[in-house]
Each structure stands twice: as structure tokens, then as C-alpha cells.
Specification:
eight-stranded mixed beta sheet; 2 domains; 5 helices; single chain; Rossmann fold
Length: about 220
């Protein structure tokens, strides 16, 4: 075990936003960074790309739809680091608007990965989180229509929070929660960011029909 070494982990880190997060963590985080991906070849290729840039992330396979894959990652983190300091839940799939597959089938597949897969990762990895940490998770909220006003953003936020579905049941008592919500309309320049501070050990509720990134940051306190 690497005693005293801090570790940050990014799910879905082989491309896009996930890869960019891994890159910045490698540059700024005072510890080791673990890049995870469902496909081993693509994950290792991403690590090689970052190594060519002078960075040194580690790779570990993770399929968030596979409970055994999640448990294997959990055991790796316990053996290597004795826990986890930073978790970025980025892995997910996009709803394909142009896909002829019936809506209800796409919705079921999307929710299985983006909601339940992420829930399963948190179930296994949250108990590993050490005090004085930051946990960032990426969820989804409904996208607003083009031309909608700031007031409609707030209305949508209120409706979404009321509609809700349970995501976390209980959090470790040393965690405080800071919510960072991005409601991104078609015009990106109109992006709104809302921040909330919520007590620990709170059951959170979220909307089932989701399209826009929703970030939760859990800040540990000793």
C-alpha cells in the first residue's frame, strides 16, 4: 500500500471531458491520478497520449454497468491507497436524438448507465472516501428550450428538484455537500450556474428524465 499518497479517480476518462479532467488533475493534483475506461485498449491509448505530454496517470478498467468491475476497482483502491481522495463520476452515455430506436428503449438504456451505474459506483466507492476530500459527480438535468428566460431556468430547477428520484440515501457524517448545477440552453452563453450547500446525511432527489450536466461536489471535513 502507498501510505500517505493521495489519489484521484476519473470514470470515463479516455476521451472528451473525462480526458481533459484527467489531464488537468495530472498537472494540478498533489497525488496520483487513475484514469478508468470501459474499453481497456482505449483507456491505455489515452494514458499513452497523456504520457507523451509528460504526464503520468495510471489506468484501471471500469465498466459502471458491471458490478463486479466496480468491486474490482474498489479492491484495487483499498490495496494500493487504502481509500480514495477525489472521485469524478464522468462516465455515461448520450441520448441519441436521431436514433430510430424507440424512445422508451433508449431511455431505459440511458438511465441504466447514467443513473444506476453511477449510483452503483458511489455505493462501492463512497465508503472509501477519506476526510478532507472533494467528490465531483456528473448527473443530468433537463435541457431548456431555445430562447427561454432566466426565470424559466429557475422554474425548471424547482420542478426538477420536486419531481425527484432518490440518488444517495446516506452520506458519511464527515461530508458536506456543495451542489453545482449547470442548466445549459441551446445558447451556451446563457449558461446559468446555481450553488447550494446542503447538510450531510441527507437523502437527495433528482429528476428521472435528464439531459444536461449536473455536478455535485462533496467536500469532506475532519
Amino acid at each position: 500500500m502507498k501510505s500517505g499518497i493521495r489519489v484521484a479517480l476519473v470514470t470515463g476518462g479516455n476521451k472528451g471531458i473525462g480526458l481533459a479532467i484527467v489531464r488537468d488533475l495530472c498537472r494540478l493534483f498533489s497525488g496520483e491520478v487513475v484514469l478508468t475506461a470501459r474499453d481497456v485498449a482505449r483507456g491505455q491509448a489515452a494514458v499513452q497520449q497523456l504520457q507523451a505530454e509528460g504526464l503520468s496517470p495510471r489506468f484501471h478498467q471500469l465498466d459502471i454497468d458491471d458490478p463486479q468491475s466496480i468491486r474490482t476497482l474498489r479492491d484495487f483502491l483499498l490495496k494500493e491507497y487504502g481509500g480514495l481522495d477525489v472521485l469524478v463520476n464522468n462516465a455515461g452515455i448520450a441520448f441519441k436524438v436521431a436514433d430510430p430506436t424507440p424512445f422508451h428503449i433508449q431511455a431505459e438504456v440511458t438511465m441504466k448507465t447514467n443513473f444506476f451505474g453511477t449510483r452503483d459506483v458511489c455505493t462501492e466507492l463512497l465508503p472509501l472516501i477519506k476526510p478532507q476530500v472533494v467528490l465531483l459527480l456528473r448527473l443530468w438535468f433537463t435541457r431548456t428550450s431555445k430562447g427561454s428566460s432566466s426565470k424559466s431556468h429557475l422554474t425548471l430547477l424547482s420542478q426538477n428538484l420536486k419531481a425527484g428520484m432518490k440518488f444517495f440515501m446516506q452520506l458519511p457524517p464527515h461530508l458536506l455537500c456543495v451542489f453545482l448545477l449547470e442548466l445549459i440552453p441551446v445558447t451556451v452563453s446563457h449558461m446559468k450556474i446555481f450553488c447550494f450547500k446542503i447538510p450531510a446525511n441527507l437523502a437527495f432527489t433528482f429528476l428521472q428524465d435528464c439531459c444536461t450536466p449536473f455536478y455535485i461536489m462533496l467536500c469532506g471535513v475532519s
